[in-house]
């Protein structure tokens, strides 16, 4: 089996299988983020928004929209990849892909791309929900699309690592609930970095979610508390590095062989 060769037929077959896996289960894929984000917009956007009014000259409900999109997108990209890899290991059907002529690059590409697609779809769903509560515009379409693609691919790559590392389903839940979501909530989703004391603001800058949330916020609103060009460049390099790690782990059989 080659490390870098690309088999288009096998790649598209595996990609199609992984996409159909979540598309055919809308109750698991789309209903939970729909309900969760209706509650977020109702409580944080409508109720709190009436008291907070504006942040950086932007209505509060509109200010939190990009962060909620990031939360939904990266959570679902991570969850899809980690569950798909772990479930395949658990039920041993991942061996069908491992014993096929597919290269490791093609396998990782299919898992990562399908999971990123789920993240983007959920992000679009959250944006549509936001349109019910407020007027949504796009200030910089290129940055919006670029950041959405990069962050979903990045967390799909992290999800592959999580799926290979996990020993049981509790490990998957722990990673999503106790690592991923806290990073997002402390990444400037519901508040401005300029509103917190200096030492805490500096600490927040160590959180990669800050750059993702601000990047998507810049795409929508044209407002960002960090440089979007630097953020996009760093996140793109990190994504390439994580996907490269995925390929190496597959080649070494990490978590795939007993």
UniProtKB/TrEMBL annotation:
It comes from the Archaea. Its main location: membrane. Keywords: Membrane, Transmembrane, Transmembrane helix. Residues 24-253 form the ABC transmembrane type-2 domain. The chain crosses the membrane at residues 30-48, 60-78, 98-113, 120-139, 145-166, 178-200, 230-250. The keyword Transmembrane helix applies. This is ABC transporter.
